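Task: fold both queries, return tokens.
Query 1:
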Amino acid sequence: MNDTHSGSAATNVTPSAQVKPELLVLTEKDAKRFWSKVDKDISPKGCWIWSRGCHIRGYGKFSIGKRPDLAHRISYMMHNGPIPEGMWVLHKCDIRNCVNPEHLRVATPPENVYDTLEKGRFKGGPNNDGVFMFEVPNGGYPAYPAPLDPSLVMTARERYNYERKIDRSGGPDACHLWTGSTQVRGYGIFGLHGKLRSATQLAIRIYSGPMVAPYALHRCDNPRCCNHRHLWAGTQKENADDREEKGRGNRTAIGDKHPFRIDPSRSHFATEAFKKSRSGLTSGANNPNAIILPDSVMDEIRSLEGIMTQREIGDKFGISDSTVWRMLRRNDWRSGVKRTSPSSESAGSVAH
């Protein structure tokens, strides 16, 4: 397979195509990092499949320092030396993300085009799939069982990104902890189809089937757990009843019995950011974004009402016109403006 399959100029495929290969220096650390991204056992054709980031046309990508290049080109250079200048690396196996050096050969750009035409890979040709031409299971990504919820659509890459965020090192019966992003209360979230989804709800839909109720409940009471054996779908009432039964509800978890009182580390209310926001340290004039103006400046601003527009006043004193609007209506604190004592005034100046 070629570096291009549409008969268009090869230089449109990768910005590194014209880089002189002798300038690419691969260290032992780079080589180890490179081969950690290759799966040699997944392809029935003996292809060595690149299992990480790919170019939009399906070719593996790898960066050496700050220089990006195509993975199959780097593999060829590692085994055969520098690529002659002006030559391209073609795939004999026609698998774009294959980096097996035995499946690679060098050719001129015209030979690349002839190979494209001969194999019917040109645009509209009989053997042009129009996308990636991954002729291996899941496009080189690990093969996971299909979701039991048929309405859940995930590409191989999305499924791989989801599964790799779950720590299953404790075994099948232990909590499988979500290691990715979480909500403020500790529940895992995962970006899918442009939206943030619940990691626990996805676990139910993948391994148990469709959600028969809107809430994902934990038998283990561990918000980060994504083990489908510990999860079940329930209604809002069932969620509230389960919370009360386990002593975590508003009626039973009172005072020293509250789980957050027993283990404060489980609560987002225990974080310093939350304590600081509730203590008044970041409200009003204590907010680091508050603008502090002397009384004389505030009086001068009010004296300009009707003479200058609010935008002109704001530009003069370095504040927004909305702040001026609030000041003219004496909403000083709501606008984040603090009056200072006469001793601290500096007429005609503004301190940020």
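Query 1 returned. Query 2:
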Amino acid sequence: MTSRDPTPSDRSTRRRYLWAAGAGLAALAGCSSTEPPADNTEPESNQTPSESDSENDLSVSAETKEWATFGHNLQNHGSVDTVGPTEKPTEEWRVDTEHDSDGMLALSEGVIYAATGDAKSGVVYALSADDGREIWTYETGGLDGATPAIHDGTVYVGGREPDDTDGFSMEPTAAALYAIDAGSGELEWTFTTDDAFHLNAPPVIHNGRVYIGAETTVGSTQLFAIETASGEKAWSARLGDQVTSPALHTTRNTLFIGSSDNHLYALDADTGDERWRFDTGDFVLTEPSVWGNTVYVGNHGGLFAVNVETGDERWTYEGSAISSGHDTTQALTDEAVYTTMQSVLARVSHEGEERWRLDTLAGGGFSAPPLVTENMVYVASNDIRAHSVETGDEKWIVDSVSATGRPITSDGVLYVAGDEGIVALS
């Protein structure tokens, strides 16, 4: 591990590009939210009196205009307590980027942050949310599939160290986590490790630590806890071949992480010690979400609701034949869970009862978790689609944007990233 201060060799650039939309988690090779009830417990019908639990520190509330972390808040709800575009939106601005953006965007204090790149190189962008104007860019090593997070004026993004070799190399570069000043675009520190070749999961920041998952060889370290002040490693945990970004239950101080070894893990956030593991029976490659005393997680075949304290299964919502073999994702509100399974979009109660279900993309597939607002569910694939939260009825499709991940929203504007760059729709 190395930690260093900015030097003149740091390759910060000021070039202008045009911008477009999306987000997602890189798949394993070869193999929103409204705020919870006042006491922040899960719905009454989904708990017993002995399970009632306060979970008040959301870090980012549902009403805020910020979208500073992958799932909008530490619990990865993926929903906001605002109204999104009801009528088909038009393109407000577009920024073409040097590389594709396979990760999700972040938004803080009127600035959009995007991580674009491939396996060898990448560029982090800071753009005005109003008009797409470039504020700064910072060049890094490989950033394929990266999603930035912003906390206390710092942008955190995981990837690789710079690779100056020509062509394909059998010796991958070390994994790297970059901490960049959100205002100036100057590097604050870099954490690197040879225990992984790609820190690819979206980072989550809480109590002075960055939690980030890694893609590595079998048996290597998979989840890192890094001190925000110094860039030094606090602890690391071995969980599987590839792990997701964690969701956090702040009251219980527990991290929930999915792994390609088929398990959902519960870890002590201070030490990394395992509290329990739940076997889903298949790869878990998408992020869990926490609501009160339940953690939701999907695998290739369905959505699981699991007790946060014991790791016992509450219920399972199974996919159909068409969704088998594809990642299941979810977004949470106080009323329901919205889940995607390849071409399936469904609304399920917190008790596991199906409210509506659509096969929206026959033969196709969703590229990221849904975004849920007060009135709409937005899903991304080769296009952007809007559905009523109450009925699932399709409201509109924008097919001029090929998104790779979940849109984010603020002030009635959708921001998405994808193969063409970054796009604002309203």
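Both queries returned. Flag for query 2: The two ends are 44 Å apart (CA to CA).
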